[in-house]
Amino acid sequence: MTPSVASQSDSQKSDLEMQQAVSSCLDDENTSQKSRAVCSTLLKRRDFLKASKARRQATGSFLLQGRKRTEGEAVGIRIGYTCSKKVGNAVARNRAKRRLREAARHIIPEIGRDGWDYVLVGKKKDTSEQLFTALLDDLRYALKRVHSDKPRKDKAPYKTRAHK
């Protein structure tokens, strides 16, 4: 084989290896049929306000607000992320939202329910400094609590807040 032919076959092999690597990321065994649920992002203020008046569960890392939508309102799972200025400057808020977004990407397709809106609210320092595995555990716990039909033990059942 001449050197030019050898280099072509090597480049073809590397291209083939690259394609296999990319396709192996796409064909991950963790992507089940259920995890391909349609997830979209909440963008409208009114959707965030509706979620804030629904069920909520606080954890050490964040606050999860969740509500079951009315029939015909939207399709799939919708997720919103927010952090107030109490969390810090724009860099700190964006970092907290990135971590919440990544945790939601891992957990909500598995445990989330179709026809629900979820809003994850970051907390000062806790969202950014918590171990990621603890963040995932908190999200699993919060989703189970929001979906449970049992009333909370130490507090009154879920009520909407009256705004002054």
Overview of the structural elements:
The protein has 164 residues and is α/β, with parallel strands linked by helices. It has helices at residues 3-26, 45-52, 90-111, 126-129, 132-147, and strands at 39-41, 55-58, 62-68, 77-82, 116-122. Helix content is 45%, strand content 16%. Strands 1-4-5-3-2 form a five-stranded mixed sheet, sandwiched between helices. Helix 3 (90-111) packs across helix 5 (132-147). The longest helix is centred in the first third of the chain and has 24 residues, at 3-26.
CATH architecture of the domain at 37-147: 2-Layer Sandwich
Low-confidence stretches: 14-35
Largest beta sheet: strand ordering: 1-4-5-3-2
Strand content: 15-25%
What is the CATH level 1 assignment of the domain at 37-147?
A: Alpha Beta
* Straight-line distance between termini: 83 Å
Total count of helical runs of at least 4 residues? 5
- The CATH topology label of the domain at 37-147 is Ribosomal Protein S5, domain 2
The best one-word shape is globular
Quaternary structure state of the chains depicted: single chain
Number of strands: 5
Radius of gyration: 21 Å
Helicity, as a percent range: 40-55%
Query: What is the string of helix and strand elements?
Result: HEHEEEHEHH
Topology:
Blueprint: H1 3-26, E1 39-41, H2 45-52, E2 55-58, E3 62-68, E4 77-82, H3 90-111, E5 116-122, H4 126-129, H5 132-147
Helix pairs in contact: 3-5
Quick summary:
The protein has a domain at 37-147: Ribosomal Protein S5, domain 2 (2-Layer Sandwich), CATH 3.30.230.10. The protein is built from five helices and five strands. It has helices spanning 3-26, 45-52, 90-111, 126-129, 132-147, and strands at 39-41, 55-58, 62-68, 77-82, 116-122.
